[in-house]
Q: What sequence folds into this?
């Protein structure tokens, strides 16, 4: 099953850019996922196990480095085209 996930990471500290950049950089190194990042969030898509494994590993690493952080996630059990936004 292919899924699509939207993630927004919020480190609750004054220096928030570094932890967000580290999180995104680590996600980019994960195999088997397609990823798009914009100013508000990062979208991932791929096979369920690849996406969930990437989210799990990268979130754990971020939480071990920075305390506290908030991760907001939306999961869709559909293979959405994250490269082309829908026309409204």
A:
């Amino acid at each position: 099953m292919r899924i699509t996930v939207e993630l927004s990471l919020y480190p609750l500290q004054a220096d928030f850019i570094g932890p967000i950049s580290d999180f995104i950089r680590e996600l980019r190194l994960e195999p088997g996922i397609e990823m798009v990042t914009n100013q508000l969030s990062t979208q991932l898509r791929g096979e369920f196990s690849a996406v969930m494994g990437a989210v799990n590993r990268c979130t754990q690493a971020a939480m071990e480095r920075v305390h506290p952080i908030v991760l907001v996630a939306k999961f869709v059990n559909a293979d959405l085209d994250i490269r082309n936004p829908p026309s409204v």
